[in-house]
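Try this one yourself first.
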């Protein structure tokens, strides 16, 4: 990892409690990794700020009457942060990669509703119900109708992957890989910080400041830095300080959907 440069404008400074386990979409499994990848990578669908499902890298989907076939049309003009076009084969590669047992994805079984996915993950078949008939069309065929299949595709394992990036890094996804999301990693120091900068090639025009993520495991230490003005946003606070900070108007709560 490289040393972090001084950003052109002051970043918003967030605290996170630990390094993410991985930022390789196929391997993400922890909360910090999920929060980060939601800013670094977009998939076919995702959630807006109100928690509503919406199309992102897909513009539309056609579902068969029996609910077993989903045909997506990709967003015109969408590119990775290095200018490479987003194409359907990248989604096919991602799904196959996540289900390949040699990858080691702990969340791959979320994709088992796809036709042949379980047998593919058990190396019983090479056939998988995902296709890229044209660069702008991506097809998923299911074993059975699943009303929540679109929600399943919001998971990192369904986000696009580039074969050229993986080949250039011996099958590993580099920390500062090109992205399809609103932010990209500009620099990092192991177990200390990550600096995110806006992706200027993002499909949706937006004005955003850089984000500095400071890794502070101890909640009391993080609160002390917050109160000294060295961190702008905490993700955790000590329970004993909750009421005091609430009275100061320093706490804002957001709902989070999760299963433990």
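Now uncover the answer:
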């Amino acid at each position: 990892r490289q040393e972090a440069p001084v950003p052109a404008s002051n970043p918003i400074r967030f605290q996170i409690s630990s390094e993410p386990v991985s930022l390789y979409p196929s391997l993400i499994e922890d909360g910090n990794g999920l929060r980060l990848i939601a800013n670094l990578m977009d998939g076919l669908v995702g959630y807006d700020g109100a928690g509503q499902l919406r199309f992102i890298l897909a513009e539309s989907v056609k579902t068969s009457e029996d609910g077993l076939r989903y045909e997506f049309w990709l967003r015109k003009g969408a590119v990775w942060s290095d200018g490479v076009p987003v194409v359907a084969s990248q989604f096919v590669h991602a799904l196959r990669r996540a289900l390949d047992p040699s990858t080691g994805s702990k969340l791959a079984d979320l994709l088992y509703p796809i036709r042949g996915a379980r047998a593919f993950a058990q190396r019983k078949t090479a056939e998988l119900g995902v296709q890229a008939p044209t660069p702008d069309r991506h097809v998923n065929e299911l074993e059975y109708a699943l009303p929540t299949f679109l929600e399943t595709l919001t998971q990192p394992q369904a986000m696009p992957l580039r074969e050229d990036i993986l080949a250039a890094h011996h099958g590993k996804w580099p920390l500062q890989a090109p992205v399809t999301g609103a932010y990209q990693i500009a620099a990092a120091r192991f177990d200390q910080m990550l600096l995110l900068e806006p992706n200027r090639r993002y499909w949706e025009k937006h004005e955003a400041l850089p984000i500095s993520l400071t890794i502070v495991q101890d909640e009391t230490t993080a609160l002390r830095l917050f109160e000294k003005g060295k961190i702008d946003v905490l993700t955790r606070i000590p329970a004993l300080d909750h009421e005091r900070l609430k009275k100061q108007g320093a706490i804002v709560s957001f709902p989070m959907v999760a299963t433990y």
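Discussion: The longest helix spans residues 88-99. The chain has seven helices and ten strands.
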